[in-house]
Amino acid sequence: MTKLEANRLKKFCSMINIEFKDLELLKVALTHRSYCNEFKKGKIQHNERLEFLGDAALELLVSRYLFSRYTKRAEGELTSFRAATVRTESLSDEAKKLSIGEYIFMSRGEERTGGRNRPYILANTFEAIVGALYLDQGLQPTDKFLKRVLFYKISDIVKNRLDIDNKSKLQEISQEILKDTPVYEIVRSVGPDHAKVFTVKVLIKQKNFGTGKGQNKQEAEQNAASEALNNWKKHIAKYFGID
Fold first, then answer.
1. Which of 128, 202, 239, 243 could make a disulfide contact with 29, Cβ separation 3.0–4.6 Å?
2. How far apart are the first and last CA of the chain?
3. pTM, whole model, 2 decimals?
4. Which residues are catalytic?
């Protein structure tokens, strides 16, 4: 590790208020696969294995937090709250607040195409940092970190049922009012495999209710459902004469 890299990592530690014992471990957590590929540095590890570990640690700690705090909630609700807490959009939002994107080691090409702000890269790096922190310091400090930077939003998710995503909301209202289930179709996908952008449209009774874009099909579908919900009254009046 160069002195410049070490200083960069120490600055990041200061920003997130965590002092890593092993800066090399943190560097791996912040290294995107593209960095290794572009610079052909065979000895450098990327963060996907740490992401795998961080995902598991995150799921355990969120589950424990929900289990102990919401003692009267059923298993299905707890599962839904957990999913809302750890989904890509949620983790990428917290990664942005922590300025994680600024410190990721990535290729010039990935950076030029907006990689530092790409939600799935930010979310994956967040998970990798969790995995690295678990290896570096154990479960309790990792839990303390997550309570500070992520778990604060759980009360709002539970209170306002933010776990019910746009697709679920659209399906519920569509079945209730139009007796039909929304169908999602891919309109196009452009870009290289590591940076594809999908465009999806949502059809109800074969009518186009909205389109959405995303870095994966799930994200594009959620955005299409969001547009459909925002324009719901206009569409049902236009297509079916329902006020």
1. 128
2. 65
3. 0.77
4. 55, 127
